[in-house]
Amino acid sequence: MQQQNGINAFKRTRRTRYNPAIRELVREVHLYQSDFIYPLFVCEGTNKKREVSSMPGVYQMSIDNILKECAQVRKLGILGVLLFGIPNHKDALGSEALNEHNIICQCIKAIKDAYPSLLVMVDVCFCEYTNHGHCGILDDHLQSVDNDKTLEILGKQALNLARAGADVVAPSASMDGMVYAIRNALDTNNFAHIPIMSYSTKFASAYYGPFREVAESTPSFGDRKSYQQDIANRREAIYESLNDANEGADILMVKPALAFLDIVRDIRERTLLPLAVYNVSGEYAMLKAAQRAGVIDYERVLIETLFGFKRAGADIIISYHAKEIAEILNASQ
User: Fold this and answer.
1) Is 255 considered catalytic here?
2) What's the mean per-residue pLDDT of the chain?
3) How far apart are CA 129 and CA 119, in angstroms?
4) Residue (of 73, 273, 60, 251) closest to 170 by Cα position
5) Is 288 an active-site residue?
6) Among the options 255, 288, 310, 323, which is catalytic?
7) Torsion angle, CA of 79/191/148/234, rounded to 10 degrees?
8) Among residues 202, 288, 310, 323, which one is catalytic?
9) Residue 87 pLDDT greater than 80, yes or no
10) Phi, psi of 260 (to 5 degrees)
11) pLDDT category, 222, cuts 50, 70, 90?
């Protein structure tokens, strides 16, 4: 009986090989334009579009060019963008993040005026706003971030973004209790409807290098290992995401994606919440470098990578490849 079952399984597998329509019919995972969120970096000024040397095709852009980019995003069928602000003024407290007229608030309002249906997600963190590049208020004695003082300003920052018109706030600061603090700030100020997409398992990763160039957020001393997740710890990584779910996160996230697909699968098997992955700058830069060197079939490798994210359990993919994969998918339809 066992041998007969094995023969039947072999025949079923063989039958799907020869007709492409059958192969498509039984395909378990698909990629859609609506799976993707496109990150954008907003700088001050007008007519600014500065390409990042380590990330070809990625730019710091002023609001006028951001709006042009959003028009392309909508045309391609991508549902939304994730915004990062790059202000001119930075100080030790990241005070510009709390300015209701700052560059990111101006950008949110401009996008929602021009494209009301476009989903605008916004990063909630202080690393782009501080002159030291860390994710909140420093504790001078510890030479690291003061977790509890930072929670107070993260709530204020999220509230500032919600008032400007953000559809989703995305805290990335890796502070203990940040989701609870932000949820409380939103709920008590009539923004209970605003979802939180938490960077719930964010590793202290070397894959972030190019991002720190485009976001101008490289720490001026030390690193972020005291508050970001240890790359070696599986159980703790799962715990961090489940804890954020208990605090009120509406969407969980694993960052980076490529080296941590085991964690994506672990979390997917333990929660019914939507799960995002961030296909980060180092992952993007490596594929682009391999493409320029001519050592891979770039399009096929890109598609395989993205399928890997979906197969591991991701519902949402935040990626600098979003526009080009949308073009590939549109061309195949």
Assistant:
1) yes
2) 90
3) 23
4) 251
5) no
6) 255
7) -40
8) 202
9) yes
10) -130, 35
11) very low
